[in-house]
User: What shape does this take?
Amino acid sequence: MPVVDRDEARFAQASRQMLESGDVVVPQIQGRDRLNKPPLIYWAQSASAGALTLGEPVRDSAWMYRVPSLLAAVASVLLVLRLGTLMFGLRVGMVAAVMLALSPVVWWEARQARSDMVLLAATTASMLGLWLCINGGRRGAGTGASPWGLALLWGGVAAGVLTKGPITPLVVLLAGISWACWVRRWRPVLSHTAPIFGLVVVVAVAAPWLFAVMQRVGPDVYWKTVLDETLGRSLAPKEGHWGPPGYHSALVWALLFPASLYLVGGLRWAVRHARRERAGAPTGVRSTRGGAAAFLLAWVVPVWIVFEAVSTKLPHYTMVTYPALALLCARAATMLPGWLTLTTRPLWARTGLVLWVAVLALYVIAGFAAAAASITRGKSIGGLGLLIDSVGVVVVLGIIVLARTWVRQRAWGRLRGLSLACAGCVLVMVGVSLPRFDALWVSRSLGQLVRLHDASGQRPLAAAVFHEDSVIFEFRGGIERIEAAEIDDWLRTNPLGLVIMPDAELDARPALRSLGGVQGINYSKGRRVYLSLVEVAAPTDGDDAPQERAQ
Assistant: This one.
């Protein structure tokens, strides 16, 4: 896919400029410092693009900046597999890992050049390390400090600090305190985790960059940015990202699907067993006193409360708790008979499955409609679209029937083949159809239009009104963003320049000539856009300009 507005375009452009300039201290976009996120994601993305282009940034592409998110997603899934295996055994670990990988929020973030998937991997590594530390000591392993646990715990915290500031330390701190308070065992948290050692590690990792960036921009500017991104986001919604209390609790059912079908059962199991763990009673799982249930609840509950309380809300903010939720859902699912086929499940679970099929059918309709539109290059899809949609729904329903039949028959080989076939369909839809759906990728169409009239890229370029960040990425930062009232002044200063402007602004300027137009959907604002590429009309073109604009 082309770069997606808005956050991904900003991250990718800042990483591209870091690669081009070699400045690894202060990320920038068009000369403006971008300090609202620490530098690890920019380092990773610029390194990825540098390696894949063999050191020639001009050959880069949006997907090259997404590779760190993909690798972080794989790491997150494997870490959940390991943690689930340690807590409950291999089967639960495998199911939890698959549930996390299938969740829509992880599926999407793994394909975005943003910091959230790297944050998830760092946080999951830290929590696996915390589990190893507090349980290693109870088994009498010397001082109680697990070397692997300490490495994962503090390495993950350091990586999290360099990825998104306080989020990973917050999760670890709240989980450790909540667990210790609940099970009334402070020693594993205070001594087995070696907090002084960990603080030294985190400071040693983060301090050099902090010192360098404050030397460049000044301590006042940097700390003002930090406070704005932490306290500012907590006290007031940023960039219109507001949500009422309960926002994340309402979204988790969709973002963790299909694992969320078992979320109620998982939370009930955790509460019941956490009470037993507090009392020191046997729980029937591998870990006894201070075991898995209390740990997973300590991971989820306090962090969830914090994110529900802050004013700025985005759907992926609570993703750092999804590994714990996936483990709870997997534990609840695998305890029950018929959990794969749902044959013995209660009414709410069967209702959830029906809703799942309905949502999946709608998704397939949308995907195949995009495919049909790409075939006809944005024209009316008519009967072809309806035919493809109908075939798509029949295929999905057939897959569900086959899967249930083969699960009952334990035909695992056939299921593996079916899984590969479904993966191929997803690759076609996401890798072929969606990128060809031109109406969504307005900036890419604008890039093609501009290069048609300025192949050398020597003419000054500006965008009026349409200021999406994907435009900056499309033109490698070589475009100015201006307001409609500034068009005439900009063209007087740049008489050979090109301007991208809404068609409505062109009607009031007869001295300008349209070189072509682009229309599509600005999905960031949820509205259609009609844009023209214009230049100053030559004096000899005077009588023909209105006709050319109409064309």
In short: Residues 67-335 form one domain. Strands lie at 28-29, 32-33, 461-464, 480-482, 498-502, 512-522, 527-536.
